[in-house]
Protein 1
Amino acid sequence: NAFTGHIVQAAPRTIKASALIDPQDESVIYAASTDQVSEWYLNYKNLKFGDPLIEREPTPDQICAMSTRVIDLKAEPYADFSLLTPYGRRMQKVLRHRSWIPQQDGSYQPVEVPGPADWDTWKACWDVYEVILLMLRRPVADGQDVGSLIATPISLEAYLQNFQTLVKENPGCWHLCATAEDRCRAEHFPRIARRLSEEKGYPPSWSDVFVYAANDD
């Protein structure tokens, strides 16, 4: 302040998870610092030997929201692909597709719903999602120089290939496939994690969950 001689600091910027990764998550999050964003990019570069392609590059807010969800809150790595899109907010406004709601008489009523309209659009959203997961690291444990991956590349590839096979085997049923996949990451992942925890006697990694889901019917 020029009159009092005091320096007035701006309040930290906040973001909402409901606008970035999950419409049902009302968490308010402090936006990431420049240093934190640089660290996420360095994590990816050390793993993939380069920066993500422009069309796969997430926004800092998207990474921050997922980091808070998975690392700080220890929740499942879920993101709604009507929100987590390439180029951030620019794509969110156009991602809608026709789905079908069963009626009591056995017929189906068409409705417009948010989300990828086809495999290619879904895959573009997945690519951004994958980059984010490969950028994040768990807190460093004893004996480690760097934190472990949230999900390994091979576990993400296994899950992706399984879903691609499902889509190819069910042509004309994209809305059902996309809904099932979304519910898998949102609802079934926590069930799988609990099941694996009981079997193994310790909490599984999300890599274990992705691989289990890839082989699940």
Protein 2
Amino acid sequence: MKAMYQLYPHQQNLVNQARDKFKQGKKSVLIQSPAGSGKSVMIAEIVRNAKGHVLFMVHRQELVNQIKETLINDDIDMKKVNVMTVGKIRNRLDKLPKPSLIITDESHHSLAKTYLKIYKFYKDVPRIGFTATPWRMNKKDSLDIVYEDMVEGKSVQWLIDNHYLAPYKYYSVNLANQDKLKASSTGDYTKQSMEDALGYNFFGDVVSTYQKIASGTQAILYAPSVKYSKKLAKQFKEAGINAVHADAKTPKRERNQIMSGFKSGKIKILCNIDLISEGFNAPDCETVIMCRPTKSLVLDIQQSMRSMRYKPNKQAIIIDHVANYKQHGMPNTEHQWSLKPRGNKQSNNVEVDEAITTCPDCFAVGRDKDFFEACDIHKDENGKPINGKVCFNCQNFIPNPIVEKSTKLKQNKDIELKDITNIRFVVTKDWRKAKSRKELYEIAKQKGYKPGWAFYKAKQLNL
């Protein structure tokens, strides 16, 4: 049987690392690889080479259909694999053939009761999990209950640099009143508080912003509720842009037609809540519009990166109307993944650690050194060269004296849109994982601690 898909070297290396873990005696391994990095083809490779019967499970029917399509296109013998949702497997445990391997996609869900019931039923069966985000909102949750070890794939930035993910432009214009956001028992914001935070005056701004910087592109829009998603779809239609709403309660046949219409390009804007977050593959989608505040790092990454599926010459656009980046960072922000619980003191907050410049003409925002180039072609009234910079976005000249540097993003009520693509974010690090005194001093600086704190902690870590 000849494979239709050929794994890239970094994908093959990740699969090989997982195999090595099993050779070392591990019975369960989690594979972490960023959204859009080709997990489906890696799964197909593992299924192809597995001995015996494989059970593949995931939580949504759309993802079942997608992996089936990949396996069939890769000429996999479908008699050797069951591809099913978790719910269907739970109801058929006594009827399904016993697998020799269990593969779980979107494995950050693996601590749910239904998953654990299946793993317990097949407690002697080896398992492999895939996820872009091994992270749970509940800090006490621990994925090491399900997986003994983890292997990590290439970073988002590496995948962009090597043309496996599309480069992106990130714009933020915050339309939400953050003070009105309230957390629910699940840890994320309540639907009502999200609606209250956005109010009813933002709909036109969402449409006009799309028309201003992403007009004509295919976009996925994430709304805080069904009511708001339908309202936004209506607003786009009234502006002459073909938009459709879909949610989990949309009839299956209608939902399939909508997905097909979006992938074919007939539908420009696909409005949803959390339906199109994990595993959805639409390489022609260029834009993501985020109108749904979230405390979940998993949800933020899965949604913000939906437009970054690679296609030659593609430039992804992310429009963040709720400033999720302030809490979770950018798609290429590096995170410290672990199977262990995060602990009460760990935080997922991110901080801007670079001097930034705001263009006074177009309001684009970026790192001083990355976004602007030195320029001395301009001269004052006496013919003396004026040193300055050229805005990457509008190409206007900015004399040096008006360049502002700060460690925090300056707020300006007149600014409608900010391009924050190249601001570098640093995830606050757990000091217990520091490997040198220098790292401890950097952590102290990020958190605003006195230098003596780092000296004391270094002693505790024997550094």
